[in-house]
Amino acid sequence: MAELLPPKERMKIPRQIMPEQKPEARIRNFNEVNFGFTKELAIKEAQRCLHCKTPTCIDGCPVDIKIDDFIKLIIKEDFLGAARKIKEDNVLPAICGRVCPQEEQCEVTCVLGKKYEPVAIGRLERFVADYEMAKGVEPEPVKVKKKNKKVAVVGSGPAGLSCAGDLINMGYDVTVFEALHELGGVLVYGIPEFRLPKEIVRKEINNLEKQGVRFVTDMVIGKSMTIDELFEEEDFKAVFIGVGAGLPWFMNIPGENLVGVYSANEFLTRINLMKAYKFPEFDSPMLDCKGKNVAVMGGGNTAMDAVRTALRLGAKNAYIVYRRSEKEMPARIEEVHHAKDEGVQFLMLTAPTEMIGDDQGRLKAMKCIKMELGEPDDSGRRRPVPIENSEYTLDVDLAVIAIGNGSNPLIHQTTPEIEVNKWGNITVQGDNMKTTKKGVFAGGDIVTGGATVILAMGAGRNAARAINEYLSNGKSW
Ligand code: FAD
Asked: Using an 8 Å Cβ cutoff, are 106 and 61 in contact?
């Protein structure tokens, strides 16, 4: 068992570096970039924790993981105990340990971070979750008495999965309905294999299945079955809607309908879900990036995923085209660093104004304009302003638009009592996630617009709590 060092000694230990694939090797494969901590690195990193009397890191975690407790268990080398401790609050730790923006959440509030680098909480979370998975630990059986009440969860992204996980442990009969043929939402069709191996998502979902959650795929609620039919014909007593924000935005510039212009959703889904990168083993339409110039518009995680995917598919030049500066980019810092190390070219303060095609209607170039930053806009970020006479043309064979997503209108169209705001997001009452229709709750990206995995999970948890209260107390709506 490792020892708990005196505070001064703890501060002397530098933040441990997680081993990763070398850039020149990883741009030729889709394997995970980060290897994760070894046991020794995890213990050393855990020993840096100051174990504050009031651990502020927990305030930074949207699902309130007992960070201090699980780190103590790592020091004691009780890794399975640490995994159990995390799972009291987070059903998907192997996923969150990989994709959560810890640098803006738990790690930003870590006291050690005021003077030194914060404890690598996310990497420790990932380590214990992977350790538990490697040991083949079965999920805890549901301990509470069955309530014999059916709850439907619409959408199998992180919001739906965390809601389903909590509800099954409260004794409800839970069925998750998913429109696609694979479960996991953006975790499966959006985030690429090199950042989040799909095997991990599948294992986490299998654990929920073993606990009794029923999953129905290829079922589009609002089309194959309506919300009302779930109540009236299938006898569900409550419904949680976690359908995400999957409707891509475009830039509305001339030429966006040319062959070779994709939304990031389509680009990434073809590659992740339909495994276009494994052609001919998987017979899905191939996106030929080999030797091509690929430009990705946007500065978020989606843009980084798309541009790094293009590189792995053999792009000659892979560009990020972003209208603000790097400081304003919403992508995780780690992803930006990885993209740079891999050779992505960042064209900052640049906006496309037109897509130019050849006589076959195929994209061949993009007209761009240089920008400068003006006063802050509604988002608090400085507004990009075009610089006069700064237009230029960039040779581009494939363009990917990754500037954000809106909500799919299907549920509201078929159940108009469920109110949406001007952006089409479902409106809910504060933390109890109640919609304007009795018995229907909602959370995740469909409520907030595109956000993060952990915020979607937090919303799913809040909804599970509110559904339990609603079904237990028979409270009026
Ligand atoms: P989703 O994950 O979108 O899941 C919704 C599910 O509902 C989908 O499976 C969809 O098929 C299904 N569905 C939709 N309509 C219906 C219907 N009518 N009937 C049945 N099912 C339906 N966040 C991070 O924290 N870190 C990251 O690194 C990160 N990277 C990202 C990279 C990409 C490419 C993208 C697109 C997003 C990324 N995000 C990241 C954001 C994060 O993935 C989302 O905020 C999160 O997945 C939202 O979860 P959700 O459950 O609300 O929705």
From this structure: yes
Asked if 261 contacts 364 with a C-beta cutoff of 8 angstroms, the reply is no
Q: For 18-58, where are the alpha helices, taking DSSP H only?
A: 23-26, 39-46
Atom of ligand 1 nearest to the CA of 444: 52
Q: Return d(Cα 163, Cα 92) in angstroms, integer.
A: 11
Q: For residue range 379-428, what is the model confidence (pLDDT) as tens digits? A: 788 889 999 999 999 999 999 999 999 998 999 999 999 999 999 999 99
Q: What's the gap in Å between 338 CA and the centre of ligand 1?
A: 22
Is this model's pTM higher than 0.90 or not? yes
- Output the DSSP codes for 59-110: GG-TT---HHHHHHHHHTT-HHHHHHHHHTT-S-HHHHHHHS-GGGTTTTT-
DSSP 3-state of 49: coil
Cα torsion for 137, 141, 143, 147, to the nearest 10°? 150
pLDDT digits (tens, 9 = 90+) for 122-144: 999 999 999 999 999 988 888 89
Which residue in the block uniquely carries the two structure tokens 């799909």?
A: 198
Determine the Cα–Cα distance for residues 171 and 357; give it in Å rounded to an integer.
58
Pocket of ligand 1 (CB under 6 A): 99-101, 154-160, 177-180, 185-186, 190-191, 220-222, 242-244, 246, 268, 301-302, 305, 332, 408, 410-411, 444-445, 450-454, 456
Q: CA 347 to CA 370: how far, in whole Å?
A: 9
CA distances from 147 to 140, 170, 173, 364 (A): 18, 8, 8, 61
